[in-house]
Design a protein that fits this description.
Helix content is about 40%, strand content about 20%. It contains six helices and 14 strands.
Length: about 425
């Protein structure tokens, strides 16, 4: 528009010069200079108007409107560019790091890539916002999954800890039960040890008492014998003294029997829980047997000939070694009879019957028939020479556990005590 205006003014000046100067155009060239319309002073005569004033005003108005339109469009474009730049800066702050950077650059435009066309710009922004919305949804889903996994993990951890606590509680209860059992066992062991100690002390007192009696002029206790004339389950004698705990013993006696078959049971010792703690028995057609803690050893003794015989039995818990003597001679020996089993204290010692329960339930078939005397017991193994001396009546040794004393034996059921001289009748009868 500005170019057309200049051309118009040049045309006006050229025409005016032609009129004012009165010169003809003979091929000369004129230099046309752009001069505003109101400042044409070189033209002295303006009698010939170039354009009408209405046309000039219209053109002027058109130029001004076009100029304002251009300025307004320029402002609009500048504002749009500023808006796009601001959005681009905001998007750049949200750009992720790492492997998603390339994807971000592909899905988002920088200022240099923004199209000049406003419609294209709006479309690009729409695509960018849609991409951001999708990424926001993805992030929200990842957050939800993380929350779910995070909530599940503490739940699993709580379950694991709970199971561990239950296991520890179970182990604690088991340990408590074991400690209670050990405590009870320790108490029982302590009580048993105390009982054994008291038994040993009691035995020592009895030994001291027996020794004191011996030094005070002990009288021979062999002035009586027991007689069991019938095979019945109610004839028996009972020793008043109880036995202490023993790890060895020797028992000796004189007896005479002609009963058949078998002489029966000269003596038996029973304790709670074991009626056959110590038993000497010959019944039926069986040989003479020694029972300790219900374990059996057969003895090569023969006593049913109706004459007096001196017999001794020794035993020790060490390897269960036993020996059997008849009339001062060793007739047999063996081992592994109730090895390492101590003889229990607190039982009942019966003469003439076998006990099926402590102190009773006798069987007539197993009853002793004959005469018995000089029953003595020691808590040690006597030497062979001592046993031989007692068998030939050259010495007398009362038992330190059970001594043959009249006031130490009671008789029941028709069994009788009869006078008997020390070894005189045995030697004379034999």
């Amino acid at each position: 528009m500005r170019t057309h205006l200049v051309e118009l003014m040049c045309f006006c000046t050229f025409t005016s010069l032609m009129v004012v100067c009165g010169q003809e155009n003979k091929g000369n060239h004129f230099l046309c200079t752009a001069v505003p319309i109101g400042e044409v002073a070189s033209c002295p005569l303006q009698s010939a108007p170039v354009r009408s004033s209405a046309r000039e005003e219209e053109l002027k108005t058109t130029v001004i409107q076009l100029r304002e339109t251009v300025v307004q469009q320029k402002k609009t474009i500048v504002n749009q560019l500023n808006t796009i730049k601001e959005l681009t800066n905001k998007l750049s702050r949200c750009k992720p790091a790492g492997k998603n950077s390339t994807t971000w650059r592909k899905n988002n435009q920088t200022m240099d890539d923004v199209p000049n066309d406003p419609n294209e710009t709006i479309k690009a922004l729409t695509r960018t916002m849609q991409s951001l919305k999708e990424r926001l949804q993805n992030l929200e889903q990842q957050r939800m999954r993380a929350n779910l996994s995070g909530s599940a993990f503490p739940s699993a951890l709580r379950e694991l800890l709970q199971r561990r606590l239950w296991e520890l509680e179970r182990q604690l209860k088991q340990k408590d039960r074991e400690l209670a059992v050990e405590k009870a066992q320790l108490y029982n062991d302590t009580a048993a040890h105390r009982q054994r100690t008291e038994s040993v002390l009691h035995s020592l007192k009895n030994r001291i008492s027996d020794l004191e009696k011996g030094h005070a002029g002990f009288k021979s206790p062999e002035g009586f014998k027991l007689s069991f004339t019938l095979r019945r389950n109610y004839l028996f004698g009972r020793v008043k003294k109880s036995l202490p705990e023993m790890y060895a013993f020797t028992v000796c006696m004189w007896l005479r029997s002609s009963a058949s078959p078998g002489v029966g049971t000269p003596f038996s010792y029973g304790v709670p829980g074991q009626a056959n703690e110590i038993v000497l028995i010959e019944w039926g057609n069986n040989p003479m047997e020694l029972l300790i803690n219900n374990k059996v050893a057969q003895l090569p003794l023969y006593l049913g000939d109706g004459v007096w015989h001196h017999i001794c039995i020794t035993w020790t818990t060490r390897d269960g070694v036993w020996e059997a003597y008849q009339d001062g001679q060793r007739r047999g020996t063996g081992e592994y009879l109730a090895s390492w089993h101590p003889i229990k204290p607190g039982g009942v010692l019966i003469l003439g019957q076998e006990q099926d329960m402590v102190g009773g339930r006798f069987d007539a078939i197993q009853a002793f028939v004959g005469e018995l005397c000089h029953f003595n017991m020691w808590d040690r193994v006597l030497k062979h020479v001592d046993i031989s001396a007692m068998a030939n009546c050259s010495t007398y040794m009362p038992g330190n556990v059970v001594a043959w004393e009249n006031n130490n034996v009671d008789v029941f059921g028709g069994a009788s005590k009869l006078p008997h001289e020390f070894c005189g009748d045995m030697l004379y009868d034999n």
